[in-house]
Input
Amino acid sequence: MQYRVIEETGSTNTYLKQKVGEDAAWEAPLMLRAVRQTAGRGQRGNSWESAPGRNLTFSILWRSADVAPREQFCISEAVALGVVDWLAEKGIEGKVKWPNDIYVGDRKICGILIEHTLSGEGIERSILGVGVNVNQEEFISDAPNPVSLHQLTSRYYDLEEEKKRIGSALERRLLSIEDKEERGKMHEEFLGKLWRGDGKPYIFKDIKGGREFEGIIKDVEPEGMIVIEGEGEIKRYAFKEVAYKL
Output
């Protein structure tokens, strides 16, 4: 994987998309890290708080063979598990909060934003945006539950070194997508790492209906729909249709 660093940009996903369109030298696999990201984006249009020079904010340009658009969530699973693997190297157990935030306990340490470009029957390329709280000492935004690696371990980390460590962990997981048998095993591992996916009931909110209900996570389907059993029925929800009650 190529590694590139820029001092500042609004969003590494946006910057990388522009560069790919302008310059053929920007070819996959490639990681672009920004020392300062001023307008990091997350799921549902949320912003990402990151103190300059304290955290890892980057995007990876990736091309996956033989992944149909209806199976695209396997790429999200690979990225999430790659981050979990990297945390495990630090002795920290990470969980995946559907669709792809990474939690330690009930606190968020990483956000992921994945954007695909489709071509014909397949995915032409993917841009995998990742923001990980590493050396940040405190958070001043109104985000309800952030946490950093430093807060968990009382250590500071070399970001250039950790960039390559997490890049290697992500690349290993992404390469496993090409083997369909390994892809199936990875899905089962993903389900085992789901935050609140332990078979116990939790409170969810139906966004469209505006009501709360008690449910149990049963599955996450290949296209990313979460399957929840609650109120005597099993229902499937897409992004923005259901939320956890924190």
Remarks:
- The chain has five helices and twelve strands.
- The chain has a mean pLDDT of 92.
- The radius of gyration is 18 Å.
